[in-house]
Write a structure and sequence with these properties.
508 residues, alpha/beta, FAD/NAD(P)-binding domain, 2 domains, 9-stranded mixed beta sheet, 5-stranded parallel beta sheet, 14 helices, 21 strands, globular
């Protein structure tokens, strides 16, 4: 709906689109929020997506071998089971197809604005609205939901000389499918989860592959298999059977993998034995043996990475990179490794550092979080009224599906909207004291976990005082923390009487 606002009687009126809810990002979380709004009877919302298609992580990460490392039945919306998964651990194409299909079937596509980037925005305290600037015009919204994802922007390492390399360079999160690696000398910088998936795939066709490793990772087998036609047919006929399989997978991730992350003695033993079995060369095995506790960094769930590193046409380099030269990479031992292409498997910036909105005091989240990322329940931020984050600080997981954290947040947002409708509330802002108390408790719980005591440096950690990324417990404790809207922890203001949000239809 487009209306005309007279900002100044003496000035020309400006056309501004007004919506109840603006969602930033059309990945798993943003589309899940949109679907749940429609299910709850809300239609006055838009989803801004800077790319040309929906899909988020599974649109962008199309590198060879890209796949999820959480079981497919669990790595999907609880309200939209997929009986047609072909693998226990689905690949990128299948995941992206699932996201697009669910969005289409739930009538969300008409609410999505593709190729529309949110460039900036400020909170208007008088109007109790967000005024957003997008690449396609201005928008006024009562509520903003940031669903940009914690790992949406590639992290490019600050390596001297990288810009002077005369070959080809690209990041795994923006894979260049037009560039043929066949017969090339390729260097891969990084050995995390993404690199572990694409290294075995490209090793088959490169002339020589050089993998530059800063820190070895603990690895664990994927335990993947194809789901048979008979199983898929049974899921179609008996949906309860698929729900039972999902429940079994849920408890496996919670009780087995969750406990293993915090008490890794058994899993470390399995991982070491597997490393000895696969990598027979003692020197190479030594380079691949971590010196920190398992779980301190993200565990690499992979079957083919270690065997790929034993190939005669693959080299593992552990000497630090000094600089990139025009024709290769120079390491600290004085060796220049000649390369035609460099692939950066260096991960992503953590949390929405690109979020351009400014809160009540005029600060962006990047400025407010200069010392430490902090939010109430990982969802709302003091000084940012009517602003919600999906998969915000301390909502990531080291053992299970991130959707098990996103869905309780989505329900929390819906409850806020319902509270606003029942009581005529125009704005909600979490009290600073409540946010501080929540984060003090989180820090105390995290203080003795493997992530902070495991002896490693990882993207899980802040530079100063532990991790503001992970939740220190199981998913049921997070769901319990968000089971109701704790309105007593919020400052609330009545809605401006001039506003009409539009009718709220009853859910089907």
């Amino acid at each position: 709906m487009t209306v005309t606002l007279s900002r100044d009687p003496a000035s020309e009126a400006a056309a501004v689109e007004r919506v109840r809810v603006a969602i930033i990002g059309a990945g798993f979380a943003g589309l899940g929020m949109a679907i749940r709004l429609r299910q709850a009877g809300y239609e006055d919302f838009v989803v801004f997506e800077r790319a040309s298609e929906v899909g988020g992580t599974w649109r962008d990460n199309s590198y060879p071998g890209a796949a999820v490392d959480v079981r497919s039945h669990l790595y999907s919306y609880s309200f939209a089971p997929n009986p047609d998964w072909t693998q226990v651990l689905a690949g990128q194409v299948e995941l992206w197809d699932y996201i697009r299909r669910v969005s289409r079937e739930n009538g969300v596509d008409d609410h999505v604005r593709l190729e529309t980037e949110v460039l900036g925005g400020e909170w208007d305290d008088d109007a109790q609205r967000w005024r957003l600037r997008t690449s396609r015009g201005d928008v006024e919204a009562q509520f903003v939901v940031s669903a940009m994802g914690p790992l949406s922007n590639p992290s490019v390492p600050d390596i001297p000389g990288l810009e002077d390399f005369r070959g080809h360079v690209f990041h795994s999160g923006r894979w260049d499918h037009d560039h043929d690696l066949t017969g090339e000398r390729v260097g891969v910088i990084g050995t995390g989860s993404s690199a572990a998936q694409f290294v075995p795939e490209i090793a088959e066709r490169t002339a020589h592959l050089t993998v530059f490793q800063r820190t070895p990772h603990w690895t664990f087998p994927r335990l993947n298999r194809r789901i048979t036609r008979a199983e898929r047919a049974a899921y179609h006929r008996l949906p309860a059977l698929q729900r039972l399989v999902r429940a079994r997978q849920y408890w496996f991730h919670e009780l087995v993998l969750g406990s293993a992350v915090q008490h890794p003695v058994v899993t470390e033993t399995i991982s070491r034995a597997r490393l000895r079995w696969v990598v027979r060369d003692p020197e190479l095995r030594g380079k691949l043996t971590p010196s920190y506790r398992m779980g301190c960094k993200r565990i690499v769930i992979n079957d083919s990475f270690l065997p790929a590193l034993t190939r005669p046409d693959v080299s593992l380099v552990t000497d630090p990179i000094v600089r990139v030269t025009p024709h290769g990479v120079l390491t600290a031992d004085g060796t220049e490794h000649p390369l035609d292409t460099i692939v950066l498997g260096t991960g992503f910036q953590v949390m929405p550092v690109a979020d351009p909105l400014r809160g009540r005091d005029g600060d962006t989240l990047t400025e407010r979080w200069a010392d430490r990322r902090a939010a109430h329940l990982g969802t709302t931020v003091a000084g940012f009224p009517n602003y919600f984050m999906l998969v915000g600080p301390n909502t990531a997981t080291g053992h299970t599906s991130i959707l098990l954290y996103a869905e309780p947040q989505i329900e929390y947002v819906v409850e806020v909207l319902r509270h606003a409708d029942r009581h005529g509330i125009g704005s909600f802002e979490v009290r600073q004291q409540a946010q501080d108390a929540f984060n003090d408790g989180i820090r105390e719980r995290l203080r003795t976990t493997i992530w902070t005591t495991g002896g490693c440096d990882s993207w899980y950690l802040n530079e100063r005082d532990g991790t503001s990324v992970l939740w220190p417990g199981f998913t049921w404790s997070f769901r319990k923390a968000l089971r109701r809207f704790d309105h007593e922890n919020y400052l609330m203001h009545r809605d401006a009487p001039r506003r009409d949000h539009g009718a709220v239809r009853q859910p089907d």
